[in-house]
Specification:
Layout: E1 5-9, H1 13-25, E2 29-33, H2 36-43, E3 50-54, H3 62-72, E4 78-82, H4 87-95, E5 100-103, H5 108-125, E6 131-134, E7 137-140, E8 145-148, E9 151-152, H6 157-167, H7 176-184, H8 192-209, E10 216-219, E11 223-226
Length: 229
């Protein structure tokens, strides 16, 4: 079984060595950095299971490091280490997307326990769900429900099937005939203009929720596609 990889970004050697030892004893693989910028370079090639970041790094703020890491890997769990106990700093770290916060001095065993807790929580949240998030959309096929920008859409049967088809292949251009076949199937009463009409009503319902975004694109002479916005 592969060991979860933990990144430790800590410039105090004594603290880093203690945490590396304890995390290794707990069954984790550990990659340590004394500076934040090398961790950012490494993040372009891979992501760890979890990152432990010291707030007071010599080359870049731990908060800024967190922000840039999450920009590259939005689901990366982050645990902050800091000598500060100021509540404002704590809230800032958590609001940036960090999962937990430990103030120095701390027990290395406590840090290991918190790492395990965060990873367990991540595993639970990764379990299969009826709801699939695709950009600003949420698709719940068993309930025949689609939400856009957090708002449930009131869709007819064919509007739901049409939007679901586009959501299953973001960026793909579907011809009218392909959409007819996938959505209306053998319905002999349908014809090409039916697709255009339903696209028009879908766009209208999406604009009611968010008039600034237009996820459905028209490709002249080709068909329609859905972009992730």
């Amino acid at each position: 079984m592969q060991q979860p990889l933990i990144w430790l970004v800590e410039d105090e050697i004594s603290i880093a060595e203690t945490l590396i030892y304890m995390l290794s004893q707990e069954g984790f693989a550990v990659k340590a950095f004394e500076r934040g910028l090398p961790a950012l370079d490494e993040a372009r090639r891979q992501a760890p299971a979890l990152a432990i970041l010291d707030v007071g790094l010599p080359d870049i703020s731990g908060f800024e490091l967190c922000r840039q890491l999450l920009a590259q890997h939005p689901s990366l769990p982050v645990l902050f280490l800091t000598a500060r106990s100021d509540e404002v700093d704590k809230l800032l770290g958590l609001e940036m997307g960090a999962d937990d916060y430990v103030a120095k001095p701390f027990s290395p065993r406590e840090v290991c326990a918190r790492v395990r807790t965060i990873l367990r929580r991540m595993q639970k949240s990764a379990l299969p769900s009826d709801i699939v998030r695709i950009g600003q959309f949420e698709l719940n096929e068993p309930a025949a429900q689609i939400s856009w920008c957090g708002e449930p859409l009131l869709l007819t049967r064919y509007e739901f099937l049409l939007l679901k088809t586009l959501l299953h292949a973001p960026g793909r251009v579907f011809s009218r005939q392909q959409l007819m076949d996938k959505v209306w199937g053998e319905d002999g009463d349908s014809f090409d203009r039916t697709v255009d009409t339903h696209i028009k009503t879908l766009r209208a319902k999406l604009r009611v929720v968010n008039a600034d975004l237009s996820p459905i694109s028209t490709h002249r002479g080709m068909g329609y596609s859905l972009g992730l916005v």
